[in-house]
């Protein structure tokens, strides 16, 4: 009985909702009918006659002013909509309508997943999408003092955004501090220094910490931010290495004595790995590439579990500089695995190696005549795979889009990762004869293989929709963010552009040909109201005259 009562209530509720959904249409027609019935008591005909007489007395200057003002207002709206779309990637009017007006009108977001669809495959794809939108530390990030600041001194532009630097500050606090820092005065000072927003305050705190003790993290901060050349940074990192190794050995002996000692050892391990990795990068930048490769290999053997630093990407770039392609292939065989996260470096380096085997003799004309060989097909498929993972990279490699300094953090599959990859690897593609020509001939073919809209991927998960928003936060404002898929212009931009052009044309024509435009306006209005007059005449003929007379007397 209870279930039957519940089912009856649900049916009644659905009937009421359905009736209210369509009741407004009936109400609208009833109001129109009442207005028509009461047109004599309300003197609607007289009022319309008065309005028409008033409009006839208006001069053409009034219509010129009216259409000109409409054109000006719609033009201002168009300019604002275009600016908002270029800055935020969406229409302001559409955003306000969806965010504020739609809830007031009882709109429901159909894109919200139900409880049933959240299970199984959809949940897995959602988790993958969230992980792909995660911001990662750039493994090849530059030095602030020796590289980023030099760019600012020369150009007057800030290459790093506040959001990017704030993420770096969070990383430093995570890797270089622990709960026992307050027990050591120098580490306590550095714990505060990593939270400072002012660069000079951070540098002063590092010097203050060094006056108390040989502090490895203080040397790191000075090498990153105060050193103006790579040589100076390398000297400071060598001093940091000496202090960091001593702390690491001491904490390694005490790591099993309690949770605090274990946390301190974990911090000292992060500090040591960071120092050795930056020393290897200094050697690479100073031209000692073989030494850098050896340091990176030793570091990966000593700390194989610390994959968070992505040292293998530094190693791949250094091996490509040495043109040690067999070693590059060996590294890719280990890290280009289906169970490991991908990156632009992994995918595009694999494509470069396969393109290297055929690019020097590749000709699009010959390939169209005879077809692609097996090696060429493998190279093209590798390029398509790389482009599907990050579609922004080819424009930078082909120099169709200008490069900027890479940020300290990147978003995988986003424009920031594409900049970071092309900034360091463009020279390696240029060194392989014909590789860029093969990329130029084949990369756009990837988009014919990917389903559209992008609800499904071909070789990877669907392209995440969050990349544009995150890249706008990571990249400086003077850079034009690459967007994929290319967004079409919102409806309201096209509508306001058409309205502005149409009203401007009416204003011009009314000013030049006032009499002709008056005749045209009267003809247009008479044509517009002709169907309504026809319907009114038919209604008067159908209804009996006595009934019509009684209704008009009410």
UniProtKB/TrEMBL annotation:
Pfam family, one: ST7
Record localization: Membrane
Gene Ontology CC annotations of this record: membrane
Ranges annotated as spanning the membrane: 21-42, 62-85
Keywords assigned by UniProt, alphabetized: Membrane, Transmembrane, Transmembrane helix
Statement: the UniProt record of this protein carries the keyword Membrane: yes
Protein origin, superkingdom: Eukaryota
InterPro entries registered for this protein in UniProt: ST7
Keyword Transmembrane among UniProt keywords: yes
Membrane protein topology class: Multi-pass membrane protein
Family listed: Belongs to the ST7 family.
Protein name (Swiss-Prot/TrEMBL): ST7 protein
Organism, as annotated: Ploceus nigricollis
């Amino acid at each position: 009985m209870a279930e039957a009562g519940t089912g009856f209530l649900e049916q009644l509720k659905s009937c009421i909702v359905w009736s209210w959904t369509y009741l407004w249409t009936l109400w609208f027609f009833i109001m129109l009918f009442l207005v028509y019935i009461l047109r004599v008591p309300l003197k609607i005909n007289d009022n319309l006659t008065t309005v028409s007489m008033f409009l006839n007395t208006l001069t053409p200057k009034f219509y010129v002013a009216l259409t000109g003002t409409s054109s000006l207002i719609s033009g201002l709206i168009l300019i604002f909509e275009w600016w908002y779309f270029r800055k935020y990637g969406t229409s302001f009017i559409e955003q306000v309508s969806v965010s504020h007006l739609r809830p007031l009108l009882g709109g429901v977001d159909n894109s919200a997943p139900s409880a049933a669809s959240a299970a199984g495959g959809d949940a897995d794809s959602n988790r993958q999408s969230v992980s792909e939108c995660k911001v990662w530390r750039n493994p090849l990030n530059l030095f602030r003092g020796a590289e980023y600041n030099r760019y600012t001194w020369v150009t007057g532009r800030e290459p790093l955004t506040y959001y990017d630097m704030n993420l770096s500050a969070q990383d430093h606090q995570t890797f270089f501090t622990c709960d026992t820092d307050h027990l050591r005065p120098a580490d306590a000072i550095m714990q505060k220094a990593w939270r400072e927003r002012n660069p000079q305050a951070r540098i002063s705190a590092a010097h203050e910490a060094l006056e108390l003790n040989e502090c490895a993290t203080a040397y790191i901060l000075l090498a990153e931010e105060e050193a103006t050349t790579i040589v100076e940074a390398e000297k400071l990192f060598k001093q940091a290495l000496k202090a960091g190794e001593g702390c690491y050995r001491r904490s390694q002996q005490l790591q099993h004595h309690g949770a605090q000692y274990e946390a301190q050892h974990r911090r000292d391990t992060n500090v040591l790995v960071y120092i050795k990795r930056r020393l290897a990068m200094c050697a690479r930048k100073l031209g000692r590439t073989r030494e850098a490769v050896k340091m990176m290999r030793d570091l990966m053997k000593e700390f194989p579990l610390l994959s968070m630093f992505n040292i293998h990407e530094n190693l791949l770039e250094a091996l490509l500089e040495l043109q040690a392609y067999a070693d590059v292939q060996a590294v890719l065989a280990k890290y280009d695995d289906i169970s490991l996260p991908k990156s632009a470096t992994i995918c595009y380096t694999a494509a470069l190696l396969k393109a290297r085997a055929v690019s020097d003799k590749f000709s699009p004309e010959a390939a169209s005549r005879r077809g692609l060989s097996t090696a060429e097909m493998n190279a093209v498929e590798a390029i398509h795979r790389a482009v599907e993972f990050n579609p922004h990279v080819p424009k930078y490699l082909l120099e169709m889009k200008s490069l900027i300094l890479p940020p300290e953090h990147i978003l995988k599959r986003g424009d920031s990762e594409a900049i970071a990859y092309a900034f360091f690897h463009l020279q390696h593609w240029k060194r392989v004869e014909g590789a860029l020509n093969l990329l130029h001939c084949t990369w756009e073919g990837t988009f014919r293989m990917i389903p559209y809209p992008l609800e499904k991927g071909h070789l990877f998960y669907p392209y995440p929709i969050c990349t544009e928003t995150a890249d706008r936060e990571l990249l400086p404002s003077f850079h034009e963010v690459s967007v994929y898929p290319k967004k079409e212009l919102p409806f309201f931009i096209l509508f306001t552009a058409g309205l502005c052009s149409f009203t401007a044309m009416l204003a011009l024509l009314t000013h030049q040909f006032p009499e002709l435009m008056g005749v045209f306006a009267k003809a247009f209005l008479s044509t517009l109201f002709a169907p309504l007059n026809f319907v009114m005449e038919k209604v008067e003929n159908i209804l009996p005259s006595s009934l019509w007379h009684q209704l008009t007397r009410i």
